Automatic annotation (TrEMBL):
<dbReference type="GO" id="GO:0009055">
    <property type="term" value="F:electron transfer activity"/>
</dbReference>
<feature type="binding site">
    <location>
        <position position="211"/>
    </location>
    <ligand>
        <name>FAD</name>
    </ligand>
</feature>
<keyword id="KW-0274">FAD</keyword>
<dbReference type="InterPro" id="IPR014729">
    <property type="entry name" value="Rossmann-like_a/b/a_fold"/>
</dbReference>
<keyword id="KW-0249">Electron transport</keyword>
<keyword id="KW-0285">Flavoprotein</keyword>
<feature type="binding site">
    <location>
        <position position="288"/>
    </location>
    <ligand>
        <name>FAD</name>
    </ligand>
</feature>
<dbReference type="InterPro" id="IPR001308">
    <property type="entry name" value="ETF_a/FixB"/>
</dbReference>
<dbReference type="InterPro" id="IPR014730">
    <property type="entry name" value="ETF_a/b_N"/>
</dbReference>
<dbReference type="InterPro" id="IPR029035">
    <property type="entry name" value="DHS-like_NAD/FAD-binding_dom"/>
</dbReference>
<feature type="binding site">
    <location>
        <begin position="267"/>
        <end position="274"/>
    </location>
    <ligand>
        <name>FAD</name>
    </ligand>
</feature>
<dbReference type="Pfam" id="PF01012">
    <property type="entry name" value="ETF"/>
</dbReference>
<protein>
    <submittedName>
        <fullName>Electron transfer flavoprotein alpha subunit apoprotein</fullName>
    </submittedName>
</protein>
<dbReference type="Pfam" id="PF00766">
    <property type="entry name" value="ETF_alpha"/>
</dbReference>
<dbReference type="GO" id="GO:0033539">
    <property type="term" value="P:fatty acid beta-oxidation using acyl-CoA dehydrogenase"/>
</dbReference>
<keyword id="KW-0813">Transport</keyword>
<comment type="similarity">
    <text>Belongs to the ETF alpha-subunit/FixB family.</text>
</comment>
Length: 322
């Protein structure tokens, strides 16, 4: 039986979280004794992007190159993926947990009569049944979910699996599908582009500032460090509430949830509501002048110091290394 992996892309570039889903699919296939790992991507994608799915572990990549599918219209994506799933004769769909992924997966679960587990952090335990470990309560606990349906959908949490980079070249095959007009009834006419070149939810490195920065006029320090690191910028909730930064940069329980390899928090206290949005980060660096700031408990590395002294030095040091 094959495993199908649904690939998301942003502005033509395949998302890292989707490549992680491909690597998960490959590891799952190896665990279950082999079988094809087929990746499917919908809409217009930049040249060369789809070959990344091969190095991440896919044996084959199917591209539905229909421009109407480029915008993430949920119904149309669900219908397209369901058709491809039947075509390849898969019994498992793997995808990255994301807003679009969640919406598509829920519809597919109904269409395919499949059991769906979201926020998956590990390969299933198949020693007795099919038990899947998933992250719950914004990363504070794990739950084991037993899936007993023939068809299964697993939405993998960002940064939960290692990205495979040594897979073989995969053949990319373009396929045509007939998707009903009704699936395109929702018309996405405007997408809100975030400030900066790097989209915050997808960023591999994030530099975030809090109230400790004292005012919007000091944000050049955050942007300077972010530029040197190739990072997106974020902020705490009060910072966006006061209007120092736009709301789409607000990170936390009530804002954007990020899962970068590196999260740098500057002048942010580390309230639980902020941590809920960053605790999937691989490494956290905290810069705060208060050694008792709660964020230090969640940090991998901490600098106790005044942001106004530390940031310019850190930015210069990184510039010098480069
Ligand atoms: P502060 O708590 O004021 O902390 C500022 C920090 O900067 C302090 O630790 C201080 O030591 C440090 N500092 C000051 N000067 C300097 C300096 N010169 N150099 C270095 N460090 C310095 N918050 C979020 O961020 N995201 C959310 O999604 C979110 N959701 C919430 C939902 C609810 C229902 C509620 C009740 C609250 C929520 N909050 C959220 C707010 C949260 O509880 C905190 O109030 C908020 O995160 C604090 O922001 P802050 O750390 O920027 O500010």
């Amino acid at each position: 039986m094959s495993i199908l992996v649904y690939i998301e892309h942003a502005e033509g570039a395949v998302k890292k979280s989707s490549l992680e889903a491909v690597s998960y699919g490959k590891a799952l296939s190896d665990k279950l004794g082999g079988g094809d790992v087929v990746a499917v991507a919908l809409g217009t994608i930049a040249e060369g992007e789809l070959s990344k799915a091969g190095t991440a572990g896919a044996s084959k990549v199917l591209h539905v190159n229909d421009d109407k599918l480029t915008a993430g219209i949920i119904q149309a994506h669900a219908e397209a993926v369901a058709q491809v799933y039947m075509k390849v004769g898969a019994n498992t769909l793997v995808l990255a947990k994301s807003s679009l992924g969640d919406a598509v997966a829920a519809r597919l679960a109904v269409k395919l009569n499949a059991g769906l587990v979201s926020n998956v952090v590990d390969l299933p335990d198949t020693s007795s049944g099919y038990q899947v470990k998933r992250s719950i309560y914004t990363g504070k606990a794990f739950a084991e979910t037993t899936v007993s349906t023939e068809h299964k959908i697993l939405a993998v949490k960002k940064n939960a699996v290692d990205l495979k980079t040594d897979g073989a070249e995969a053949a990319v095959e373009t396929i045509d599908l007939s998707i009903s007009d009704a699936s395109f009834a929702t018309n996405i006419t405007l997408t809100d582009k975030a400030t900066g070149d790097i989209l915050l939810p997808e960023a591999d490195i994030v530099v975030s500032g809090g109230r400790g920065l004292k005012g919007p006029e000091n944000w050049g320090m955050i942007e300077g460090l972010a530029k040197e690191l190739g990072a997106a910028t974020g902020c705490s909730k009060p910072v966006s509430d006061i209007g120092w930064r736009p709301h789409h940069e607000h990170v936390g329980q009530t804002g954007v949830k990020v899962a970068p390899t590196l999260y740098v928090a500057v002048g942010i206290s580390g309230a639980i509501q902020h941590l809920a949005g960053v605790n999937s980060s691989k490494y956290i660096v905290v810069i705060n002048k208060d050694p008792e700031a709660p964020f230090f408990k969640a940090a991998d590395y901490g600098i106790v110091g005044d942001a106004f002294e530390v940031l310019p030095k850190l930015t210069e040091a990184i510039k010098a290394i480069k």
